[in-house]
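Lecture 7 notes: from sequence to structure.

We start with a single chain of 205 residues. Read the sequence below before looking at the structure.
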Amino acid sequence: MLDLFSNNEPLDLGLPDAKIVYYPSFLNFEESHHYFQGLEKNTDWQEEDIIVYGKVHKQPRLTHWFGSKDLSYAYSGLTLNPTEIEDELLVLKHKIEALGTYSFNTCLANLYRDGSDSVGWHADDERELGERPVIASLSLGAPRWFHLKHKTDHTIKKKLLLESGSLLLMGEGTQENYLHQIPKTKKVIGSRINLTFRRIVQSTQ
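Now the structure, written as tokens:
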């Protein structure tokens, strides 16, 4: 388990078979609050149906898919059709891209309304993301615990509290070798928005 951070320095999680870096204060408090309020109010959040083990369930969080019109995204029997990335979301995308040599053309936004919203163990390894995808995950709002575990060596695992304004950069090897989740909690907590910037290399259409 990782403690809270008192500085702005990025932290390499030091996990084998993947490059995963955590930026605890990628955005400051005022920036985080500003983006959270705007996205929560102005995004057309959807509660989608997904298929899990052959059964249809309501997804336990709200989502919205941003990207060019030809960049749909499919997972768990669900196909998302995008809204164009523009305005402040573009500013965030460019700020993240400035950290390295990668680029993103889509963003899956998730709204966790309270502690009962969650996402189960999974890897973002859909074919549309190509080989060895890089995903940048920006957190806004209430902190939530993020769990990682190695797919084959079950002794390798990590638990990290994702604070508002923090960025988790899941580099090459992460989706191939690790599963991750945001578990439910019985604690009374506020809403959290998670922006996951991705690069689609093949459309589902």
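The radius of gyration is 16 Å. Keep this in mind for problem set 3.
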